Amino acid sequence: MSADSLRPLLHPDVARLRAQCEVLRLQLRLTAEEWHEMSTTLRRELTTTYDLHFGSRERVLQRTAIEAAEVHRRVELLNTKFTRGEKITQEVIDRVNLIVDKEFERFHKRLREAFDMSRAERDRDMAARGDQAADGELTTLYRTLVKKLHPDVNQTTEEQHAAWQRVQDAYQQRNVSQLRSLIAMLEADDASIELDASITDVDVLTALVATLENRCDVERRKLERLRNEEPFCIAEQLTNSEWLAAHGAELDAGITDKRRDIAEAQEFYRTLTGGTAAPSTNVLKTKDDQTFDSDFMDTTYFGQR
User: Is position 3 within any domain?
Assistant: First the structure.
């Protein structure tokens, strides 16, 4: 009797299931890499292009939006006191203005950081505040990635070396969002169990296929959500002259509306206070050559005004 005849026969579905696992693993990796590329590189390119077209108008819109909200808040508090029958004295006016100044302090700080501070100045300001939460997350993310990618503890491929370099660059730049993105990409690999050559059990392989299919579905839906978000969903429009003109007109109209709101609220404020004008907003003027902080661009340019 030959040695071959003593070997157990493989189930006919084993080869098919193993091939299916390999295809799913590749799909998972490619989807995660696309998500990472969009989150880190393409987002920056698109927001930079958008800023070239609309940056100055967006800056004005952000300032006027906050100024309108601030003066409306002053009017709201004063009118509440007036309708309750309180006399609007200078002491009441000063107290209301102090409350509103405190409420809007963080918004003005955010604008100053985005418009008028260099990255070095923001870092110094963060250090002065003792912002340990941000530093703590940066360190935690970096250590997690070091354990996965450090050349001294992992067999280094060309792909891993490139990822390792991206980790170093992101850490040096204090880019927390990019470190998060790198971890998300690596988690896609971790979720797909290594397909050991010794695995021939049909039930095990079937379960692995189901796991990979589920993870692929999750990552595909995650990628699709990202594609439908701005700035990605307007990528083609950024080269369309008609859309650029229409969007510029839309921003101009928004600025006009906010300025009208400010004027109306200021008039109501004067009525409540006997002719006193509301304090002007303390948003600092922008510098023409100042670029947006990436996080601020993400959270105000697109859908968060």
Answer: no
- Number of structural domains the chain divides into: 1
Residue 13 tokens, joined: 């579905």
Q: Is 191 buried (19+), middle (13-18) or exposed (0-12) by CB count in 10 A? A: middle
Stated length of the chain: 305
Measured CA to CA, the distance from residue 31 to residue 54 in angstroms comes to: 31
pLDDT digits 0-9 by tens, 155-172: 666 767 777 888 888 888
This prediction's pTM: 0.67
| Alpha carbon distances (Å) from 257 to 57, 64, 253, 262, 263 | 13, 9, 6, 9, 10
pLDDT tens by residue, 84-122: 999 999 999 999 999 999 999 888 887 777 666 555 555
* H helix intervals, the chain: 3-6, 14-37, 43-83, 90-103, 105-115, 119-129, 132-149, 158-172, 176-191, 202-227, 241-273, 294-296
Asked whether 222 and 35 are in contact (CB, 8 A), the reply is yes
Q: Which domain holds residue 111?
A: 12-301
